[in-house]
Design brief:
mainly beta, Methanol Dehydrogenase, Chain A, 5-stranded mixed beta sheet, 40 strands, 6% helix, globular, disordered N terminus, disordered C terminus, binds calcium ion
Length: 587
């Protein structure tokens, strides 16, 4: 009955008899490919990690706006009982919020009241902790066809019943005990897409696609080539092997795609952001040089086969943990008077890239923070113009941006209203030098670099954080707010609001066009990424906070619940340290 009605609705919609809003009002309960494709026209929900396949982290909702945001108050909060770190962007579908805490625990709560509906602990063996490079974080789930998918820290991909939280299927996605999952899966054309982390630990990164119904592996695309004495998995890797030297496969090579995916349903291209090289120092990983494809790259793959259509390497021959795993956004914008379909990324290396997302052509690249490893990007070759000794072959050097990245897991967002991208970034330097005593050890952090400041150099300046509004059409800054460091990600809304967090534990709202601070509430440090939804004619904004009991705080206009008091920090530890430390480091 339900399905029939949904089918009729789709047909009616296709005939153009009803506007998209009529379908929205109906809110069919099945999240299928069409629903995901049409996510932008379902303003009341948040169906996939970036809210839409373009990964905008933008909601058109505007009940809460730049004039009334001061009236926001706490509607309810939900204690997740997973106190540690939070990096999650929750999803909202059919009046239910689906979120994750540390150790890949999934919870479903009522989007009106915060009442728990179910909770699923995949029981990741806590002894797995040291196998995971960057803490037990998880960034979220995917929903599709009655199931909720989570990538567990220990490498399992688990499909849960959306109504009950019970396991439907579970598969091991990792080939190696030192690969881990912290990123959110995506579902594209009935396939669950999942990556992994652990580049420093001596692993070979890849992205996999599983049948959403059965959990059967559909395809796997390796980011780096394997042992050349065996057949390469595809011609793409045979070509990549020409850019590697020595016996790289014995150290894995890295390239782990641990976070960023996007999908263009018209071009039918799945975009994947790939990780850094392992070990970091290319001279050790690939003696004699080479670009080391496809490290630190944006890949465009066919979602049905996993075959590559194009790639763009942001950091050829990576030497500094400059992953290109930071979230990518698709948008259609006018550049130099011409309408372009672009993909943008602000990876760790500090450049903001604008590419043609159909062809992979570089349109522009400009630094969005202080950098000194390159002076710019050559528009003829698309390659960075590296500075002397940036590769620290001649001894220690202080490199901007730091290894933590000018931008890391924290989602940036894009508003089609302001046509600006909001980048939550870090301004930092990091000392690099060669390590003559390096010995490769699987399962340990393999850098082949030392981190000692150059002699006679001033101590590295204290890192700082920022939120910058960036115009992708001109690749220039519009406005900037500074913080002492960078906590979570951003949300931008149709109410001309950008929600962001400060390291002292405040959730903040700025006007999206001008960057004026309009609202601010103290919740405790360890803030993840805010989301918004509308139910029963009321708009809510919510965010997970790691160090206030591991809590989902939910706000609405004129709500007046008291904010739970911050627990005292454990003795001998400041609030900014300890169990709630958010990972800025490499995966
Ligand atoms: Ca890394």
């Amino acid at each position: 009955m339900k399905q029939t009605r949904a089918t009729i609705f789709r047909r009616v919609l296709l005939l153009g008899i009803l506007p998209a809003s009529a379908l929205t009002a109906q809110q069919p309960s099945r999240i299928d490919q069409n629903a995901l494709k049409r996510a932008p026209s379902r303003p009341n929900e948040w169906l996939t990690y970036g809210r839409d396949y373009a990964e905008t982290h933008y909601s058109p909702l505007k009940q809460i706006d730049d004039r009334n945001v001061g009236r926001l108050g706490l509607a309810w909060s939900y204690e997740t009982h997973t106190v540690a770190t939070f990096e999650d962007t929750p999803l909202i579908a059919d009046g239910v919020i689906y979120g994750t805490g540390s150790w890949s625990v999934v919870f479903a709560v009522d989007a009106r009241t915060g009442k728990e509906i179910w909770r699923h602990d995949p029981d990741v063996d806590r002894s797995f902790g040291p196998h995971a490079c960057c803490g037990p974080n998880n960034r979220g789930v995917a929903i599709y066809d009655g199931m909720v998918y989570v990538g567990a820290l220990d490498g399992r991909l688990i499909a849960l019943d959306q109504k009950t939280g019970k396991t439907i299927w579970s598969v091991k996605t990792t080939e190696d005990e030192y690969q881990s999952i912290t990123g959110a899966p995506r579902v594209v054309k009935g396939k669950v897409i999942i990556g992994n982390g652990g580049a420093e630990f001596g692993v070979r990164g890849y992205v996999s696609a599983y049948d959403a119904k059965t959990g059967k592996l559909a395809w796997r695309f390796y980011v780096v080539p394997g042992d050349p004495s065996k057949p390469f998995e595809n011609p793409e890797l045979a070509a990549a092997a020409k850019t590697w030297h020595g016996e790289w496969w014995k150290m894995g090579g890295g390239g782990t795609p641990w976070d960023a995916f996007a999908y263009d349903p018209v071009a039918d291209l799945l975009y994947v952001g790939t990780g850094n090289g392992g070990p970091w120092n290319r001279e050790v990983r690939s003696p004699g040089g080479g670009d080391n494809l496809y490290l630190s790259s944006i890949l465009a793959l066919k979602p049905e086969t996993g075959r590559m259509v194009w790639y763009y390497q942001t950091t050829p021959g990576d030497q500094w943990d400059f992953t290109a795993t930071q979230n990518m956004i698709l948008m259609d914008i006018a550049i130099d008077g011409r309408q372009r379909k672009v993909i943008v990324q602000a990876p760790k290396n500090g450049f903001f890239y604008v590419l043609d997302r159909i062809t992979g052509e570089l349109i522009s690249a400009k630094p969005f923070t202080d950098i000194n490893w390159a002076t710019g990007v050559d528009m003829k070759t698309g390659r960075p113009i590296e500075t002397p000794n940036a590769r620290y072959t001649n001894g220690p050097v202080l490199i901007w941006a730091g290894a933590g990245g000018a931008h890391s897991w924290q989602p940036m967002s894009y508003s089609p209203d302001t046509k600006l991208v909001y980048i939550p970034g870090t301004n930092a330097a990091f000392p690099f030098g060669p390590d003559p005593n390096f010995k490769f050890t699987r399962g340990r952090q393999n850098f082949a670099a030392t981190f000692v400041s150059p002699p006679n150099a001033a101590p590295p300046p204290t890192p700082s954080g920022f939120l910058v509004a960036w115009d992708p059409a001109t690749n220039t800054e519009r406005w900037r707010v500074k913080y002492p460091s960078r906590p979570g990600g951003t949300l931008v809304t149709g109410g001309n609001l950008v929600f962001d967090s400060s390291p002292d534990g405040h959730l903040l709202a700025y006007s999206a066009d001008k960057g004026e601070k309009l609202w601010d509430v103290a919740l405790g440090p360890g803030i993840a990424t805010p989301v918004t939804w509308l139910i029963d004619s009321k708009q809510y904004v919510a965010v997970l906070v790691g160090r206030n009991g591991g809590r989902l705080f939910t706000f609405a206009l004129d709500a007046k619940e008291p904010i739970p008091a911050l627990p005292s920090p454990p003795p001998g530890r400041g609030r900014g340290r300890g169990a709630g430390r958010q990972s800025q480091q490499s995966q």
